[in-house]
Amino acid sequence: MIPQKFVRAAKWAFALSLVITVTALAQQFAPELLKQMANSDEGQVVQIPAVASNRQLPAPPAPNLVGVNLGVESEPNGTFGTANSLGANPEGKIKGNSLSGVLGTAGTDEDWYSFTTTVASSKIYAATITSFSGGGTDTILTVFDSTGSGVLETDNNDGTFGGSSSSIAGTVLATPGTYYLRVTNVSTTAAITSYDLYFAVRSGAPTAETEPNNNGTPQVLPASQWVSGVVTPATPEDSDTFTFTAGAGDTVFISLDLDPERDVTTYNGRIGLGVFGTPGNLLVTGDTGTGDTIDSEAIVMTVETAGTYTVYTDSQVAGGGGPTATYNINVTTIPALPAGTCTTYTNSTSMPIADVALTSSTLSIPDSKIIRSLRVILDISHIFFPDLDIHLRSPANNDNGLVTDVGASTQTGPQNINLNDDAAIPALFAALNGPIYQPDLAYRLDWFRGENSLGTWTLDIRDDAAPDGGTLNSWSLEVCEEPALTGTVVYNQDFEANNGSYTLGPGVTANEWEYGTPATVGTITSPPIAAFSNCASGTGCWKTDLDSTYEVSSNQDLTSPAINLAGVSGPINLYWQARYQMESTSFDRIWVRVTEVGNPTNTRIVWHSTNATMRDDIGTTSSTILPASAGWGRYSGDISSFAGL
Structure pTM? Predict the structure, then answer.
């Protein structure tokens, strides 16, 4: 039997040019995650001045336990019987693609993960990070026993990186065996388009703190990176600090258990990491401490440089320490995934940033590369950094934001901003020097993926308030390129000769897919996006309404002809070119799915949108609105499960 390909859009502007190449490859090229950010709407993120150490410390040992980045979950994993395995005694992270029901049934999806422990009385530390979800952020995280039905612990609101995200620390795993983590969405309407699940299993006993180890006199973490302590006395306030080493680009997951005895005696603690910024600060987070009976906190951060870092904990409430204010802290370091073949291009010519004006700087890239991922590094001096709204424009005039009104005037000297979609969180803290951050919620560097790097790139800096100025000292783009496609082409369509015999799907409302050359941009905002009235391969493509935006509350289905994969063995990848601009995925969704002809139950969604609303309100008013867009980019999905059909 033969699979078909479906493309669907909800409402607002979306355009697609399908240049589909199905190849049987010797190597799989998995699609990189689409990511975005959302600021936390609960708890607090604060900065505490770091006190210089007044003791001679031995170098922290290299961690003997290193977390693993497991990439992206594999669907279906909606039951404990189909749970994704995290491994034995695991630590690391995995990305959940969607807790939404991408076919319009938000809130019905469950993601299950299994793990094993080989030691009795082990403990699990886990947290969800939802601050980059383009929709909802409210997860529930549950630990189950080996039956998949006995609840050992559950949490709804202890996380702070994403409104009502989840944190669990120190759940006891009494006997060796298999256990389960389940992530669900509280909302039935606000889709959680993506999240990161961090986890670590620890066995034995944590190493006890050694006082004094307050801010300025840190204790070196043991090789296990697992410690216990107590925040006492309450007066004067106690703070405990520990040092460890991390490599450049490592993501650090720190989990704070505020009730290690599980005697329902907790205190309102907080957890932090540093030292970052100029002057140096410890970046600290914690919620109100009243969300659950068993309280915990979690912080994640991607660090720019290799070196020694400091873990910080204290009571969030004055006088909140004491003999019962006990804790366990777990630290997990997760090295970055290999980026592949990357080249860095730099404009080192400084230029003044005009006050209450637009300043633009260009960077010419002489190499023709298909972009797999981008990293942006900015070196900027400014009297009041939150005045700045910063955008990046590609040679194809794809104009997308990077950061808006981040930083603080208390951070002095040049601000070195390192932006990468693979970083743990957006710039939720004012300290910009030191961490690697994601771009802001409304933006993704992934929207440049699949474009050609060749040509002139432009950095736009808008200063939106008087009376202060600054200097763009330098800026760089790191371009990591897609590997060349190899293998046998089974099917190809670029729509230049005709419409490819694609048809509008039945049973949808006001289906507006049209074939031809776009006459208008068809955006959700104005002004229009320049150079959008074209197609990936020339003048022929499919778009949802060639000369206007498509209708509100409409649904669009576009169906390919049958594609014969009989006799084709895997791995098999599907590639297509697309460009789109749309509202938040809380309102609108796009997905690409493959269905076996004659067997509609055999369906796989190979890609879906995860964006926030793709536009930017520049300045202190919304008088100037810049639309963002993705593409024309090359996307891909693994369809090996359809091999031979």
Answer: 0.88
